[in-house]
Amino acid sequence: MSPESAAADRQRGPGEPCVMVIFGATGDLTKRLLLPSLYNLKVAGLLPEKFAIIGVSNIEHTSQSFREELTREAPGHATGPFDPAVWAWLAERLHYVTGVFDDPATFERLQQRLDIVAKEGAIPGNHLYYLATAPAFFGMIAERLGAAGLAQAPTGLWRRVVVEKPFGRDLESATELNRRLRHCLGEDQIYRIDHYMGKETVQNLMVFRFGNGIFEPIWDRRYIDHVQITAAETLGVEKRAAYYESSGALRDMVPNHLFQLLALTAMEPPNSFGAEAVRGEKAKILTALQPLTPEAVLTCAARGQYDAGLITEGAVAAYRAEPGVAAESQTETYAALKVTVDNWRWAGVPFYLRTGKRLKARSTTISIHFRRPPLQLFRHTGVGELDPNVLTIHVQPDEGISLRFGAKIPGPTVDIGDVEMKFKYAEYFGARPATGYETLLHDCMIGDQTLFQRADMTEAGWRVIQPLLDVWHALPARDFPNYAAGSWGPPEADEMMRRDGRAWKNDAA
Ligand code: BG6
Predict the structure, then answer these.
(1) Which of 83, 233, 364, 378 could bridge to 395 as Cys pair (CB 3.0-4.6 Å)?
(2) Is the pLDDT of residue 430 over 80?
(3) Cβ–ligand 1 contact at 399 (below 6 Å)
(4) 194 lines ligand 1 (CB under 6 A)
(5) Mutational test site, ligand 1, from 252, 261, 333, 399, max ligand atoms within 8 Å of CB
(6) Is beta strand 309-311 parallel, antiparallel or unpaired with respect to 415-424?
(7) Is the peptide bond before 481 cis (omega within 30 degrees of 0)?
């Protein structure tokens, strides 16, 4: 069997037998995303029969009380109809170890429990460690695993570590975290997760571009005027002020999620769909992104913070009035920037990126704005300037792809109107409720790193936004709050586009 077809078989089959150890297992992520995803994988027949989960956290629990708590909450977090029999299968495989992460004794207890669980379930010694903790613990846990001998697998078995975001808070801390991880783990053991890569439409981007003959020939600077990538949220900061106050929209969304979307949009076709081929092409784009000079930050980027306003659900408070947020907070809840990819294909094509909370609509899109036709044939017929063609990839909530083009409005005169051709995932393939973590967890269990960030990719992302972090820190915003909740963001972001003779494409859901 060729390596490619062996990989394809693995993709379709269940993950390899393993024990999944969740550090920080009493947190939200476990209940809301990890267990519902494992449940969905079980339903899809993609979990190995020989499987167990060990939760580790400093909150006192026995395996029994841990199981009971999760069982109470499970139906509420399910993404589809809840089958108690499927849950029971998972629940009986749940175990717990109480302990703090900086204590070697915790890892001794973990080691003992791993031995017992593996023996009881006849599970070979494959371990998937999931770091669902505060980021301050990532390096420490990896080092403790290394010191306890839990990071190295006997021949033929594996030990993998999944690292959640945020991966560092600037270039220096991300580089340091990579150094610490690499000190005790091989790069092939590290799975830096970005949940955007688990989204169906994001994965479809490569199929769309490289599995079809008609788009790639026009996918470059000769035909494309510019690209817009938007991740607009209607949600506010929710209960996450403690984290968000020290993060802000730029750190929270740009070097990870938005740069991943950009890399997939701009990358060259890889030689194969192997992890290294794909990640190598993505890394090339991230390293070709030009960091803004401090002067350019003033004209090629915009930041905002939401004020009180009106969203579909009703009136909502200003960011500064949210629980846990400082009354004079300088944290941005909106960030926009223009970046350029310095390579042959994209020279001169700006990529405009923006993200914000409490915006008018929840909408994550990538829109490709094509150049206008070279000849305004219709200029004598009174139709004015034709709108350019726009291809939009709707990442969420209504996953799909649409193409805007001009058509003659029926009638005796030549009048041109914009029309839209739409493909909606749900209409073709039906809705498949999922958390978005299923593919990623399954990939960890089969050892496929394609969708995960490599060390160089994380550092390249931070390198690009570091000048923004520095300038914004040195020059605190004087006009916050500067956009109303329920609007499309601050006027500075519109101004940034207007200077380039362009405008944001706002897609209401
Ligand atoms: C997370 C951010 O990574 O992504 C959140 O920390 C944000 O602030 C979320 O709300 C958005 O994810 P999604 O899948 O809802 O677009």
Answers:
(1) 364
(2) yes
(3) no
(4) no
(5) 252
(6) unpaired
(7) yes
Instruction: Measure 362 CA to ligand 1 centroid, in angstroms.
Output: 11
Task: Read off the pLDDT of residues 370-427 as tens digits, 9 standing for 90 and up.
Answer: 998 876 666 655 445 678 899 999 999 999 999 999 888 898 887 788 899 999 999 9
For atom 8 of ligand 1, which residue has the closest CA? 252
The DSSP result for 221-240, as a single string, is TTTEEEEEEEEE-----TT-
The residue whose CA is least distant from atom 5 of ligand 1 is: 252
What's the chain's average pLDDT? Answer: 94
- Residue 221 CB contacts under 8 Å (≥ 6 apart), including other chains: 345, 346, 347, 348, 349
From 94, 45, 363, select the one nearest 232 (Cα to Cα).
363
Question: Which of the pair, 10 or 13, is modelled with greater confidence?
Answer: 13
For ligand 1, whether the C-beta of 233 sits within 6 Å is yes
For residue 16, which phi and psi values (nearest 5 degrees)? -75, 145
Question: Annotated catalytic residue: which of 127, 257, 394, 442?
Answer: 257
Give the 3-state secondary structure of 80-143.
Answer: CCCCHHHHHHHHCCEEEEECCCCCHHHHHHHHHHHHHHHHHCCCCCCEEEEECCCHHHHHHHHH
Structure tokens at 127: 């371990």
Residue 380 pLDDT: 56
Cα–Cα distance measured from residue 199 to residue 194, given in angstroms and rounded to the nearest whole number = 10
- How, if at all, do strands 363-370 and 94-98 pair? unpaired
Average pLDDT value for residue range 69-87: 96
77 is catalytic: no
**DSSP assignment, residue 318?**
-
Tell me which residue has tokens 């060990």.
54
Report pTM: 0.95
